[in-house]
Amino acid sequence: MDRKDIELLKEVESRSKSNTHRLDEHDKKLEELSDVYIALTKVNDKVDNIDNDVKEIKNDMKEIKDKPSKRMDQIIGYILSALIGGLIGYVLLKLGLK
Length: 98
What we know:
By secondary structure, the chain is mostly helical.
């Protein structure tokens, strides 16, 4: 081995160390990105759960809001039935049916 080969070998070794150091840094960054991905997945699951809860709450609120309206419709139906029944009874009474 002559001097040029030794210099070349030193260069290759230095480059190898540098590349190893860079690869180690990239491994750390990949691990950090993996941790971020896992955290985002958990957050996404929680957001989905919150979205489902909000939809349930909206449906419940709509039912609560519509309940008085349904009851009022029912009361009006009873009143109309009583009025129509009374009117029919009155007409039948006037016609002479007892």
